[in-house]
Amino acid sequence: MKMKLLSWNVNGYRAIVKKGFREWLDASGADVVGIQETKADAAQLDREDRNPEGWSAFWNSSQVRKGYSGTACFCRHAPLSVTYGLPDERYRGEGRCIRLEYEDFHLFNIYFPNGGNGDERLQFKLGYYDAFLEHAETLRRDKPIVVFGDFNTAHKPIDLARPKENEGISGFLPIERAWLDRFVAAGYVDTFRMFDDGPDNYTWWSYRAGARARNVGWRIDYFFVSEELRDNVRSAWIDPAVDGSDHCPLGVELEF
After folding, report:
1. pLDDT tens digit sequence for 169-209
2. Is position 88 annotated in a ligand binding site?
3. Is 130 annotated as a binding residue?
4. Which residues are designated catalytic?
5. CA-CA 20 to 30 A from 67: which of 59, 144, 203, 245?
């Protein structure tokens, strides 16, 4: 059995719908599509936008501020179970996490916090990272883990166009990158790097100064699998040709 999984930070679901998201979704050939930064309360969406025909849809919208954060999953076949948010109450309410349980793995769609609005928010981001990893490691005793989404951190200098200029910027701070080191050391595999170890591969570009056209970007969106699934990964890719957001989609294909 093969499963094709896609992830995309859409930077506003209602905006992306107007730019052809539904056509892209239906043509994707995916079994699961997870989106981040929906900026939408599912209850306020039209029925067809909220639950497109042919898909099972699951929404986790921000409760602390409307039009902020948020995640959603669209599935061709309903998972065994669905859980919203992390168990740690300190990191609930912003709609950042959906977990889908499948027969062979737990699948996380996560929009990790941005740490760029002062030290308090940076500490929130780092705490969220730790709470997620603790939860994932607990679930991993049961079955392997797949996690995708916007991690809001470029891991290595190769993962952004201008590393030297951004060493002091959240998203490339040593303390943020150190957590990704720990995550990898705990046995999680960056699937894209299994197939492409080259530079100039990015998933986010600033809207300013024509950054996307010049490919001055950051790779901050990822698919990770726990080590037990390494041999099940058949392909992993980034699709910068798909426009509509300041991020592009990325994907992985697994076989069991």
Report:
1. 999 999 999 999 999 999 999 999 999 999 999 999 999 99
2. no
3. no
4. 111, 150, 247
5. 203
